[in-house]
Amino acid sequence: MVKAPQSVPVKRTLSSTDTATPIVVAVGSSAGGIEPVLGLVSALRKTGTYCVVLAQHLSATNASVLPELVRRRTSLSTKTIEHWEPLKPDTVYVTPPGFDVVFEAGHLLLVAAARRITPQPSVDQLFESLANSGLAPRTLAIVLSGLGSDGSKGLHTLKRAGALTMVQRPADASSPDMPEASLATGCVDFWGSVEQLGEALMTSIERLHLPATAPDPAQLALLISACRTGGVDYAVDFFSDDSLAQMAQLRGALLGLNSLADYAQRLALDSSEAEAFLRQLLQPIGSFDQSVPQRKGLLSVLVDEYLRWSGPDPFRVWSVGCASGEEPYAMAFALQDARARAQHRSDFLIYATDLLPEQISLARAGTYTPHELQGLPEDIVGRYLGRRLKHLQVNLDLRRKILFSVHDAMTEPAWPALNFIACLGILPSLRPRYAQQLLLKLAAAVRRGGVLFTGAAEG
Questions:
Q1: What is the distance between the alpha carbons of residues 436 and 220, in angstroms, rounded to a whole number?
Q2: Distance between CA atoms of residues 51 and 86, nearest Å
Q3: Strand, helix or coil at 394?
Q4: What angle do CA 210, 274, 224 make, to 5 degrees?
Q5: C-alpha–C-alpha distance, residues 11 and 446, integer Å
Q6: Pairing relation of β-strands 164-168 and 139-143?
Q7: Alpha-carbon distance 80 to 70, whole Å?
Q8: Helix (H, G, I), strand (E, B), or coil: what is residue 396?
Q9: What is the pLDDT of residues 163-199, one digit of tens each?
Q10: Residues 6+ apart with CB under 8 A from 365
Q11: What percentage of the chain has pLDDT greater than the value 70?
Q12: ω into residue 121 within 30 of 0, thus cis?
């Protein structure tokens, strides 16, 4: 019988550079998940560098045979998690029935699962605790077969914190709901059969934490040629060589390919890989962190401009490349606060755009985990967000002040007569002439006396 004490003192705080804790492979699954779990663990090899934490939905009232099944299929040690369990390499940890599991300060904590409709253990809760730990860059999250959407929100949170994410191909899953929900977030690095996941997992553990190397010019030329052959002209036309090479090195490592030349050959022949390459290249990572100098400067200049505005029309803002909504919501919080404090008569309207439909869907919903909201002052959270199940959601009246839409700022017309445009994080990844082209387009969209904010590093 596993018992969870009510509280345990936290010993220390981990950082992403803490190598005393092994790399964590967090696996979530539900209905139909036993077979893929066993297939995955059978591919594992001892390296002394990683451990696996399994969160398989289980009946809270029946003993689980999963630890014994796993033990028979892997050369790694297998252990049922106990409360305040330290992580050891080459070990598979199985969550016991009736408990959720979270990660804190290098240990696994068992939390007695509350009565709820959602399954247990909660995959989202495990993923989100890893994101909150600072260990995300040393975490790989995997979602396998299961009903419902558990794991998708946590996977999204982990990805934005720097983790690698993988999903079982829905067509191979007996219950494809969980893999499909995770893929819909747009935050999945790799998806495939269980056999392919096992190969990608071991390759990632062995190679992805090695220092990045500068691309060979001849191999880079092969990559650019493959982009055109594979129909990824957008990437070649607009993105810098460094951006292309970094993403190709990541994708190649996940696929077990040894060089840019090998990956270029795969890219030219595999349309699904070409699509994955482009979508990940286009995927920005959002954050509410206001300690970043550019974000602090953005909100300060935005509020100053708004308070100077006295026209009859709303103060009009455009957030270019809004990802999953953090930037436009942060701007809305700041503007609403300023309006209330100064009793300013002018309203405001924010256009928020991104290339990826799944990012816009997430942004429009306006739901975030407590970890994702880190960096926002507590009083802002209290005023403008309300509880929605395990997450927090931006209040409806504020969401209505933001118009989210799929839009390509490079090729589609800009909104005219804007008071303020924010374009952070996009320009450095573009080739210089396209960065200049985008700057000129955005500058033309700002009304006389308005502001185009790109951040000092991009100016």
A1: 24
A2: 11
A3: strand
A4: 75
A5: 52
A6: parallel
A7: 11
A8: helix
A9: 899 999 999 999 999 999 999 887 898 999 999 999 9
A10: 393
A11: 91
A12: yes
- At 51, the amino acid letter reads C
| Residue whose entry in the numeric block shows the structure tokens 């199940």 | 389
pTM of the model: 0.74
With 0-12 / 13-18 / 19 or more C-beta atoms within 10 angstroms meaning exposed / middle / buried, residue 2 is middle
Per-residue pLDDT tens for 271-315?
Answer: 888 888 888 888 766 778 776 667 788 999 999 999 999 878 999
The predicted pLDDT at position 49 comes to 92
Q: Which residues of 139-148 are buried (b: 16+ CB within 10 A; e: fewer)?
A: bbbbbbbbbb
Peptide bond preceding 96 in cis form (omega within 30 of 0)? no
Structural domains in the chain, sorted by start: 23-207 (3.40.50.180), 217-282 (no CATH), 293-453 (3.40.50.150)
In total, the chain counts a number of residues equal to: 459
User: 321: which 2 tokens?
Assistant: 């490349």
Inter-residue contact 124 to 390 (CB < 8 Å): yes
- Asked whether the beta carbons of 450 and 420 are under 8 A apart, the reply is yes
Stretches where the chain sits below pLDDT 70 are 1-19, 115-118, 208-213, 284-285, 291-293, 456-459
Q: What are 170's two structure tokens? A: 């829905």
Nearest to 103 by CA among 83, 80, 76, 79: 83
Structure tokens at 232: 């990824």
Tokens linked to 283: 């995927």
Q: Identify the DSSP state of 344.
A: -
